[in-house]
Amino acid sequence: MTDAEIEALLLSLRIALVAVTGALPFAVAIAWLLARTRFPGRVLLDGLVHLPLVLPPVVMGYLLLVSLGTNAPVGGWLLETFGIRFVFSWTGAALAAAIISFPFQVRAIRLAMEAIDPGLDAAARTLGAGPLDRFFSITLPLALPGIIAGAITAFAASLGEFGAIITFVSNIPGETRTLPLAIYTAIQSPGGEAAAARLAGLAIALALAGLILSEAAARRVRSLSGS
Amino acid sequence: MSLEIAIRHDLGDFQVNASFGVNEPGITALFGPSGAGKSTIIAAMAGLITPDRGHVRIDGETLFDSADGTNIAAERRQIGYVFQESRLFPHMDVRRNLTFGARRASGRSAAIAFEPLVELLGIGHLLQRKPVNLSGGERQRVALGRAVLAAPRLLLLDEPLAALDQARRQEIMSMLEQLRDVARIPMVYVSHALDEVTRLADHMVVLDHGTVAASDTVYAITSRIDLFPLTGRFEAGSVLPGQIVEHDVKHHLSAVEISGGRLWVPRIDRPEGAQVRIRVRARDVMLATAPPADISANNIVAGTISAVRRDDGAYLDVRVACGSDHLIARITHRSLARLGLSEGQPVHAVIKSVTVERDGGRGSGHTQASIQRRVPK
């Protein structure tokens, strides 16, 4: 493999990792809101969270570009106030991947939380546990299998994201050229077939490793949680 | 311990409108058929539901009052709760389940310490296990321990034995008795099983369709034949306080003195002078107008008919005053007519079978003792 290919692999892993871990707390919070509370606007929030799932990724990338571009109001303000620039940067790619993979995380965590017997929460209350205490001692540990499953699915989705990333942050070698973008570039270049095949093989190996890891993690957590 | 409860709660097709007061420690039973509103009432006491109207006061402290908006959160009420389905935390082992409430009791210490409680409940060998690896009886014992270790001022038990077989029920009932006597935790015990209630409870609140049909001592409630439709005809009978006065070693019998006479029962392994509670089912009592001779029954008590409750069907209930207590006899309409029985008439009650329920008759130690909380609030 060439240095550029290794670079694309490491970049992909870094972007996916940052996307998943960055989105995780928000995913847990929103999953909890959707699973355990009733409030006006809940349906709207539910729809908003799932939007990236049904929207063409290119449209998602476009929306990010027009709202977070350096000339756009929010993007300009971020750049001026915090010096944060998303466009043409790997952090922008991570943001795009996080948003695209967000529904996978929320769905898995929400399902896990909905499967928890609400009676356990009531039992914890009678034992003196307040709301935050119950969240950390009961809800979160019992939702852990769902959190792990969601994180792994989201990680895979982030690794594979193409449309939103190329639209939002372009295809810059070493900065935003992830595995899918590298494969695309290789196919587009004359004589790049061998490189494309190598990268595709890499992507397949990565996906398989992810699946095996997720299965092992789920088994380990199941035995820990005693269910 | 004192309880003042008044709850109105609309559950759509069913309304609970119940109020009662209890002024004694020990065990108070909420008794009634399924759907009588028992669980709604204790859920409101614990703060797990908010009733539409009413109040919940324990030892004079108001935990809920719709009139002034008081509604203390369940987690700050210090009321323990044992659920029918145990509700152990599946991701924690038994030890961590047991100490869950204790770790949150903010300095209050439980009425009984961890080690003796674990021993009393017989769960020492289970401490490292996950709830999924416990039997139903083991789960309920752990749930009971978990609630007690949270140092509650009152323990609510919602049909804790309903899902268990007879042997397990007996086992846990005897543990509850020990907890009542050793740890002196006041309890409210919800059940639709009369045998549990007459064995465990001191005070009894009978619920019917969401309202309180009666609230009194177990002795008073069980001697009221007007409540028989609620207390269940087949199992119904009176509960009486008694005292062991003699042992007949040769015949394996013990004599129990009740206010109306003396009963011989199968040997009780308790010293003379010990207080016991006995239960005599109505269907185990026959009536005779003259003292019967040449009869195998050992126990014949003289008394006076104080009430007759006529019923559709073959049977009716006769209440017989014996000393300061009452026996109930379930006889046929034909027998009543044949013997010409009526109120005020002296009769002899022939008792075929007596169940000795437990230690502690009227005025026994646990009903006199006041509940002392170790840490003042």
CATH architecture term of chain A = Orthogonal Bundle
Number of helices of chain B: 10
Determine the CATH superfamily of the largest domain in chain B: P-loop containing nucleotide triphosphate hydrolases
The biggest sheet of chain A amounts to: none
Euclidean distance between termini CA atoms of chain B: 15 Å
Overall pLDDT of chain B, averaged? 88
Per DSSP, what share of the residues of chain B sits in E-state strands of 2 or more residues? 35-45%
Overall number of structural domains of chain B: 2
Structure description:
The complex is a heterodimer of chains A (227) and B (377). Chain A has one domain (3-225): Orthogonal Bundle (MetI-like fold), CATH 1.10.3720.10. Chain A is 81% helix and 0% strand. Chain A has helices at residues 3-36, 42-54, 57-68, 73-82, 90-114, 118-126, 131-160, 163-169, 179-188, 193-225. The longest helix of chain A has 34 residues, at 3-36. The relative contact order of chain A is 0.15. By secondary structure, chain B is of the alpha+beta class. Chain B folds into two domains: 3-222, 3-Layer(aba) Sandwich (Rossmann fold); 237-359, OB fold (Dihydrolipoamide Acetyltransferase, E2P). The longest helix of chain B is centred in the middle third of the chain and has 17 residues, at 166-182. The radius of gyration of chain B is 22 Å and the shape is globular. Chains A and B meet through α6 and α7 of A and β7 of B.
Give the helices and strands, then pairings.
The complex is a heterodimer of chains A (227) and B (377).
Chain A: H1 3-36, H2 42-54, H3 57-68, H4 73-82, H5 90-114, H6 118-126, H7 131-160, H8 163-169, H9 179-188, H10 193-225
Chain B: E1 3-10, E2 15-22, E3 27-31, H1 38-46, E4 53-58, E5 61-65, E6 70-71, E7 79-82, H2 94-102, H3 114-121, H4 136-149, E8 154-158, H5 166-182, E9 187-191, H6 194-200, E10 203-208, E11 211-217, H7 218-222, H8 228-231, E12 237-248, E13 253-258, E14 261-266, E15 275-281, E16 285-288, E17 299-309, E18 315-322, E19 325-332, H9 333-339, E20 346-351, E21 355-359, H10 365-368
Parallel strand pairs in B: 3-9, 3-10, 7-8, 8-9
Antiparallel strand pairs in B: 1-2, 1-4, 4-5, 5-6, 10-11, 12-13, 12-15, 13-14, 15-21, 16-20, 17-18, 17-20, 18-19
Helix pairs in contact in B: 2-4, 3-4
